[in-house]
Amino acid sequence: LRMMLAIIRENKQVDEKEMKAASRVIQSHKKLKEIPVVQLKQITKEQARILQTNEEKALSVLDKLLKTKEDRKDAYQLAEKIASADSPITDAERAMLDGFKKVLKIK
Q1: Most CB contacts within 10 A, which of 9, 62, 94, 106?
Q2: Per-residue confidence of the chain (107 residues) as pLDDT tens digits?
Q3: Is 14 exposed, middle or buried (0-12, 13-18, 19+ CB in 10 A)?
Q4: pLDDT of the residue at 9
Q5: DSSP state, 89?
Q6: How far apart are CA 31 and CA 50, in angstroms?
Q7: What is the pLDDT of residue 87?
Q8: What pLDDT is stored for residue 13 in this prediction?
Q9: Contact yes or no for 45/39 (Cβ under 8 A)
Q10: 8 CB contacts (<8 Å, ≥6 apart)?
Q11: Is residue 51 within 8 Å of residue 3, measured between CB atoms?
C-alpha cells in the first residue's frame, strides 16, 4: 500500500484515475482483497502518514517490509499498474518506479 500511495501522490496531488486503479487492484489482488474494508482504510491512513512524515525514509525500507522476492515483485507490479492508469507513465513516475526496483532489489 505504501508504494501505491507514493505513486498516487507522486505529483503532490491525488490522481483520480490512479485512485480508481488502486481500488480495482485491491479488489482483485489475492491478499489485499481479504483485508476487511475498515482495516484497509486504517492501514491506508497509517501508510499515508508515514509517507507524509518522511517519504524518502519510508520508501528506503521497502525491502525490509517485503521479505520475499515474490512479495517484492508483486508490490512493484501493483505500483506499476497504478502508475500506468493515467497513461502514459510520466517521467517522475518512471523515476519513482526505478527507485522502487533499486530498493526492492528486483530487475
Answers
A1: 62
A2: 999 899 888 766 666 778 888 888 889 999 999 999 999 999 999 999 999 999 999 999 999 999 999 999 999 999 999 888 877 888 999 999 999 999 999 98
A3: exposed
A4: 81
A5: P
A6: 22
A7: 76
A8: 66
A9: no
A10: 14, 15, 18, 19, 22, 82
A11: no
How far is the C-alpha of 44 from the C-alpha of 48, rounded, in Å?
6
Vertex 69: Cα angle to 18 and 43 (nearest 5): 45
What span, in angstroms and rounded, lies between the C-alpha atoms of 51 and 43? Answer: 12
Respond yes or no on whether the N-terminal peptide bond of residue 88 is cis (omega within 30° of 0): yes
What is the pLDDT, as a whole number, of residue 17?
A: 79
* Res 34: pLDDT: 94
Half-sphere exposure of 38 (CA within 13 A, CB side): 0
Distances (CA, A) of 52 to 7, 47, 49, 74: 13, 9, 5, 24
End-to-end CA distance of the chain: 20
Task: State the Cα–Cα distance between residues 9 and 66, nearest whole angstrom.
Answer: 21
Q: What is the CA radius of gyration of the chain?
A: 13
